[in-house]
TrEMBL record:
The keyword Oxidoreductase appears for this protein: yes
Top-rank taxon, per record: Bacteria
Ranges of residues in domain Aldehyde oxidase/xanthine dehydrogenase a/b hammerhead: 24-136
Keyword Oxidoreductase on entry: yes
Protein name per its UniProtKB record: Xanthine dehydrogenase family protein molybdopterin-binding subunit
Keyword annotations: Molybdenum, Oxidoreductase
UniProt-annotated stretches for the region Disordered: 143-163
């Protein structure tokens, strides 16, 4: 199936339709909405990671001119219903704000100052005095593993996997044991979390917030405040990056909503950059311990036990096992994962949660095993290529990993590599070449959309989904333009309003395939209905033509040389617009998921269905240059080739993949949340000390998206997500390149100079 007779946009390279508005500052982000009579809030965060509030002094703050009030757990009437499953989201914290004086994580919101001006609120916040009785904290995974009670560790059944008899094989072979570690990472989208809450009476509220899931705020406010979900109107047209932590409702939203209700006045809160490191999630630290039996140069059995950090009450798993369980052919596998509670706060998914962190260990291990077997690392991976999914035994929906290895290796020049560590140099500079495999699951969602033809020939597309910076507006415009045979400039796409047709959350790289397929269905439906009108209209040049002979292009329907314009067809029908609504069940799922979606749930199908294992694949090759005196590693070149099914827009897909690869550099060399063991607080909650790469850190980056492999088991478009795949494998490819350059095998990230000296 193709999108239309001629694909002018889908699969091609075209500019972002929202680009001009963003560049001109005409795209309105959450905190920028001009609301009358707005009051300004400042959030105060706990300065201990574990304890009890003993004193809150607010008199001086309340004396500041313009201050309206100061709220905290002492505020009467601020009761939130503690409903299981809420706050709603794929993760997030179940600890509702301001309900008790107990503090269980660092940065937990403890007070909210609201004033007529932001300046007054900021000043007053400095005058609020809060005292705590501190309790023993375990703010990091290491601390919790060393001294935490056994009750703080859980090994959920759902995180265990066993096939074959790994224990037996491991007893009869020389066993290679290795341990790998990744630290906490913090989401830092350019746009901070923000909310404006505006009530209309006591039953209806409008929320402006940057979100990956509008239904999270709807469901959470309905549950905790007893509102009708439809009375919570969420507006989120532009989101300045999400990366996972905007997919749920955090405490700051709830207290802002309560303040606005109490004051009977709209209230705005924007978190500070430091608060972005605290109460809105992070990527959990991980430890992976492997035992591998190598027989005849092949993996005969593998055992992985992982420990990962989680929040004080929540158990969101950083799913480090996802990749090791399924990536390579191996009949004997044992996997268990233990979640360890910490006072670092609730963790949440962060771009390729589990896949990025879990594949670091696996892909460095594969490099070590290849060396032990005396085999080239690419060849070693080819030898372990899985033709069917080792975890489920099912066929893949579509897999072109071998082509990814070929394309990336060729483009990189891998055949010129000499295997000996330290054997490649440019002058004095050590050169290292390393590689890794990338993989990311494909989730599909039920989705809904509306397509409308207007009298002036414009096409409007409506979907209650999100563009978190990934290019959703652009790909949806291209899909509709192709389906209707119009120019992309004639299509306007509306997203980010909870009153638009319902869709699930924009996470797990599922929006392009799922919402894109609903837009395809709506646009094709609109075209079919207009075709129907034309062929039945005796005034149309297409009267009596069989609909199957009709093609769409240039704003017209054609049959041979006869044609009719879309606008003429509409005009003759006597209406000034024609609209078509369509809902789709997810590929691999059915009515159940669609029903769930309509109730405000996510309505998604997991990567492994009853019939297929659905994954995107890739291969990442990296060149590092290391100064032999200072041992500073620099990534000079990255080439990645990716199998993402049908490419929807080559430009935005490459941007997504490139962003993922660059984030891989960040994870490999820079990012690390640094905790002060004495206070349990984060030492680097700012972008000066929490390092991410700048342009000077990034060399040449090439992202190749394979063409010609649409995957119709994942979506009607054949498209799979590209957002998260690029970061998976990249940190390991860099670690492997550093080993090749220096002979130093570093098994934890970030790979900083101190580890290389
Ligand atoms: Mo992504 S971590 O599913 O926003």
């Amino acid at each position: 199936m193709t999108v239309t007779d001629q694909q002018t946009y889908v699969g091609r390279r075209f500019d972002r339709v929202d680009g001009p508005a963003k560049v001109r500052g005409e795209a309105t982000f959450a905190a920028e909405h001009a609301i009358e009579n707005l009051a300004h809030a400042v959030l105060i965060s706990a300065t201990v990671p574990h304890g009890t509030i003993t004193t809150i002094r607010t008199a001086a703050a309340k004396d500041v001119p313009g201050v309206l009030d100061v709220y905290s757990c002492r505020t009467p009437g601020w009761t939130l219903k503690d409903v299981k499953g809420y706050p709603k989201g794929p993760a997030g914290t179940g600890i509702l704000p301001f309900q008790s004086p107990e503090i269980s994580y660092r940065g937990e919101p403890v007070a909210l100052v609201v004033a007529d001006t932001l300046e007054a609120a900021k000043h007053a916040a400095l005058l609020v005095e809060i005292e705590y009785e501190e309790r023993v904290h375990r703010a990091t995974l290491d601390e919790a593993l060393e001294s935490g009670p056994a009750s703080d560790r859980k090994t959920p059944k759902a995180l265990q996997h066993s096939r074959g008899d790994a224990a037996k094989v491991l007893k009869t072979a020389d066993v290679i044991e290795r341990a790998y570690a990744t630290p906490t990472h913090h989401h830092n989208p350019m746009e901070m979390h923000a909310v404006i809450a505006a009530w209309d009476g006591d039953e209806r509220v409008t929320i402006y917030e940057p979100t990956q899931w509008m239904q999270s705020a709807q469901g959470t406010l309905a549950a905790t405040l007893g509102l009708e979900p439809d009375n919570v109107h969420v507006i989120s047209p532009y989101v300045g990056g999400g990366f996972g932590n905007k997919a749920t409702t955090w405490p700051h939203l709830l207290v802002t909503v309560l303040a606005a209700r109490t004051l009977k006045r709209p209230v705005k809160l924007v978190l500070t950059r430091a608060q972005m490191f605290a109460a809105v999630g992070y990527r959990a630290a991980t430890r992976s311990a492997y035992r591998v039996a190598l027989k005849g140069g092949r993996v005969a059995a593998m055992d992985l036990h992982a420990h990962t950090q989680t929040g004080p009450v929540d158990l969101f798993p950083e799913q480090v096992g996802t990749v090791p369980k399924m990536l390579y052919a191996n009949g004997n596998m044992d996997f268990t994962q233990t979640l360890v509670r910490t006072n670092a706060g609730p963790n949440i998914m962060m771009r390729a949660p589990g896949e990025a962190s879990g594949s670091f260990g696996l892909e460095v291990l594969m490099d070590e095993l290849a060396e032990a077997a005396g085999t080239d690392p690419v060849e070693f991976r080819r030898q372990h290529h899985a033709d069917t999914d080792p975890e489920s035994g099912l066929p893949y929906s579509s897999k072109h990993l071998l082509e990814c290895y070929d394309r990336a290796a060729d483009a990189f020049g891998w055949s010129r590599r000499t295997p000996q560590p330290g054997s490649m140099r440019d002058g004095d500079t050590l050169i290292g070449w390393g590689m890794a495999t990338a993989v990311y699951p494909v989730y599909s969602s039920a989705a809904t959309a509306r397509a409308r033809l207007c009298a002036d020939g414009r096409v409007e597309i409506e979907a209650g989904s999100h563009d978190i910076g990934t290019g959703t507006y652009t790909i949806l415009a291209g899909i509709a333009a192709d389906a209707l045979g119009v120019g992309v400039g004639q299509v306007s796409v509306k997203l980010g309003d909870s009153r638009l047709p319902k869709n699930g959350y924009s996470g797990g790289s599922r929006t392009a395939g799922s919402v894109g397929s609903a837009v395809l269905a709506a646009a094709q439906g609109l075209r079919a209905e207009l075709t129907e009108r034309a062929v039945n209209d005796s005034d149309s040049p297409l009267h009596g033509v069989s609909p199957s002979e009709i093609r769409a292009a240039d704003g017209r329907l054609y049959a041979g040389r006869a044609s009719d314009t879309l606008t003429d067809i509409l005009r003759r029908s006597g209406k000034d617009q024609h609209e078509t609504y369509r809902e789709i069940v997810p590929s691999g799922g059915g009515q159940k998921e669609l029903d769930a979606l309509k109730k405000g749930e996510d309505g998604s199908v997991e990567a492994v269905t009853d019939t297929h294992a659905r994954y995107s694949f890739g291969a990442v090759f990296v060149e590092v240059r290391v100064d032999p005196d200072f041992m500073t590693p620099r990534v000079s070149r990255i080439v990645g080739a990716f199998d993402i099914g049908q490419v929807l827009n080559a430009k935005t897909a490459e941007s997504q993949l490139t962003g993922g690869l660059i984030w891989g550099v960040s994870a490999a060399l820079h990012e690390h949340g640094e905790t002060d063991p004495a206070t349990g607080l984060l030492l680097n909650s700012n972008l000066a000390e929490y390092h991410i790469p700048v342009n000077a850190d990034i060399g040449e980056v090439t992202a190749i998206a394979l063409e010609g492999h649409p995957d119709y088991h994942t979506s009607a478009l054949g498209a799979r997500g590209a957002g998260e795949l690029g970061i998976v494998g990249t940190p390991a490819a860099i670690a492997n390149a550093i080993y090749h350059a220096t002979g130093k095998r570093i098994r934890s990230t970030p790979i900083t100079v101190d580890k290389l000296l």
